[in-house]
Every structure is written in C-alpha cells, then in structure tokens.
Amino acid sequence: MIKKIIVALALIVATACLAQQPAKTTPAQDQTANGTIVLRGGKLLTISHGVIENGVLIMQNGRIISVGPASTVIPKGAWIIDVTGMTVYPGLIDSETHLGLIEIDADRMTNDTLEASDEIMPHMHVYDAFHAETALIPVTRINGVTNAIVAPGSGDTLPGQDSFIQLAGRSAEEMITVRDIAMPMNFTGRQRRNQSFDSSKYPSTRMGMATQLRQAFMDAQEYADKWARYEKRKANPDEKDKDKDKTPDPPKRDLKLEAMVPYLRGQKPVVLAVEENKDLETALDLAHQFHLKVILNHVTRVSSLLDKIAATGFPVIIGPIYEQPREWERYDAVYKMPAEMARRGIKIAFASYDAHNVRNLPYAAGYAVGFGLPYDEALKAITLNPAQMWGVDKDLGSLDVGKMANVVVANGDPLDVKTDVKHVFIAGQEIPLVSKQTELRDQYWH
C-alpha cells in the first residue's frame, strides 16, 4: 500500500513539473501567436541606407514593418530577441547555383544539370527536376544564403531556363518563386563537342557555335512572326474572304522556338557566359543583332575590355575568382577583377556556380575586398545588386520597410570566415540551423 502511494505521488509530482516547464517554442512558432518578431540592439546593415548601430528591426506577417534606432517603438506582445553585439543583414542571394539538381557529383542518378541530347535546349526548365528535399539546402541556409538562382549545367550553348528559389518551403512549388527567370547562353568554348558526339549535329568550333545560335534566334523570330500574323488574322479576318467566319488554323507549336520568344522581345534577360576577349566580342555582336536584354556572366579573362563592358551598361555576374593567372597575366588579374569593374561603375553580383559550396558565397565577396573591392560594394554584390538584376528588389536585397523579412543575424562581419550565423529568418519565419552535418555532430558528440 505504501509503495502504491509513493508511486502515485511521484507521478503527480512529475506531471506537475512537466506542466510548469515552458513549451520549447521557436520565434517562428511564437510569431504565429503574436504576429510580430523584434530584433533589438544589433548593428543593422541595411544595404540601401547605411548602417544603424544599436538598431531595431521589426517583422510582422512575413514582412519588415520597421527599421530604425533604439528609440523605435516596439509593439506590445511582440517576441523580442536581444541581438546586442551582433550584426543583422538581409538574406544573401547567390546568382548561379545547381541546388536541387545535384546531390552527389559522382552519382549520375542524382545529377540533373545537363541534357546531352541536344545543344539547343531553351525549352528545358530546371523546375521540372528541382529536388526541394536536397540535403544541401539546409547546409546553405546555415551561412545566411536565403535565395538563389538554380541554373542548368554549362555544357550546352542554350541549356534551358533558370529558376529563382527561396531556400525554405515544404515543396518545390513553395520554394520556386520565379520559374523561368532567365535563359543562360554559354559561349566559353567549353560547349564544343568532341568527336565522340555526332559531328553533324553538334558544333566543334566557336564558329559553329555562333552560327548555330544565330540560326536558332532567326528561327525563333520567324516563329514569332508567324504567330503574330495568325493572331492578327484571327482578330481581323479579311472582308474579301468568302469564308471569313472560319477561324484560321494556327501554326504548329514548337516548344524550342516558343521558349526563346520572350528573350527576343527583351521581356527576360539572357545570361551570357563568356571568359575571354574574342568570346565576349562575338557574343556581344549576337546580343546586339537580336536586341537581347543581357546579364554578362564569368568574364574572368577580359581585363582589356572592361571599358567596353562598362559602355554596354550590362550588369555582370563575376567569378569564379579563385583562379590561377594565365601565363600572360599578373598574379592578381582575376582576383582584382571585381574591384576593376566596380571602379568603372559596372554593377556586379557574385555566384558560387556550385551546389555543395554555396555556403561560401560571402567569402568570395570578402576575398574581392582584399583585392580592392570597396566593402559596401561587396555587400551589395550578394544582396541588393542581384535582387535588382533578377527583378526581385521590390521584395529582397535590403532591410527596408515593406520588403520580405529574409533576415540574417550573425556574431560578426558577414564576409569574415570566422563569423557564425545565429538566426536565419525567411519570410519572417525563423529557420532551424540544422543540417545533416549538425545532426551527425550531435549524434556522435559524446
């Protein structure tokens, strides 16, 4: 009897203790109840309007509703996170990755980057293959990258169309925010096929690549004209036509040519990848001939043509910058390329060009600072500049009222390899800083 009483008392005490323990909630869960999250006391790198020491940032319903000094009024009932001594900045944007298209490089079954059946594949969409459950996205988020361009591989001249993603969501549909945001056009020389391919189908010289691209754009122009004439006849049938009530037959659809039409009309940008001088000159001629809206990519070996690039007004995705110099170049020719571009007023953005090492994006910007790129320009090159290039700056790229609350809190300079990210918010929801690696660490730590 005494034993039963002791057991009963023990159960009552244990239940009471559990009831008294506060539920382990995250700011994201609490936001659902209170509607507001406040980051108070941190150094705010707004990007668009300077630095606010000891600032206050308020998020509500997925948006930033206030950015200001310590005197900013905090709404009642808000979840307040003390970030004193920390740095707060907008989520970083990587302008070219293969996230969700590669899981293990050595396993071809997990590699969806390149379609080898044709050189011209503008109608291929990376969203058809994007794998939202990839283990690489949590790794990327842990270092403050919240958005990225997902691009197909660069082995084809027209390999498909890029998508813009947000690195949080329960499915691919939630993560892909802009499906066909841009079309890569690669003209680096690496797209030439070797003799193991059908030489009658694939170009093996730069001349062949340029000719094939011109023909593809001309065919797309003709295709667009056919559809324009059809739509005009459909809307205004010829009064002399005896059978004027009959709807004319539409042209046969061609997905390849149809995909190119928005780019011919300048509605979307073509991401033009070149590396050396002659590549750049030929590719710019193509862009001029077809009036393309261009974002230049790579351009790591064109130091003598930087003034020409500046004159075009085209923005540039720069990199990779960890490359050895050629025999005719200075040791720092590639490293200081971002600084030389910024000095000429060229808008630049950084990219990782990878899936596994996207987390290193801020360090590319920091490396460029070491070779002369102004610090503020380096920050812009991974935040506001890419947001403007991709047309998403209304929502992303800076800490401004009304923008999406993609916010990072770190214990130091975002460009410093010694800095650790402590909080990541995407659309105002705090994302757990958990990855496959942290889980293994915790499992085997003891």
Task: Name the features.
single chain, 446 residues, alpha/beta, Urease, subunit C, domain 1, TIM Barrel, eight-stranded mixed β-sheet, 13 helices, 16 strands, 30% helix, disordered N terminus
Could you give a quick summary of the protein structure above?
With 446 residues, the chain is α/β, with parallel strands linked by helices.
What does it look like?
The chain is α/β, with parallel strands linked by helices. It folds into two domains: 24-90 and 397-446, Urease, subunit C, domain 1, CATH 2.30.40; 92-396, TIM Barrel (Alpha-Beta Barrel), CATH 3.20.20.140. It is 30% helix and 21% strand. The chain is built from 13 helices and 16 strands. It has helices at 2-20, 27-34, 136-141, 172-175, 206-235, 255-264, 277-289, 306-312, 337-343, 361-370, 375-380, 384-389, 436-444, and strands at 36-45, 51-60, 63-68, 79-82, 87-90, 92-97, 145-150, 162-166, 176-186, 270-276, 294-301, 316-318, 348-350, 407-410, 421-426, 429-430. The strands form two sheets. Strands 1, 2, 3, 4, 5, 14, 15 and 16 form an eight-stranded mixed β-sheet that branches. It has an eight-stranded mixed β-sheet with strand order 6-7-8-9-10-11-12-13. The longest helix is centred in the middle third of the chain and has 30 residues, at 206-235.
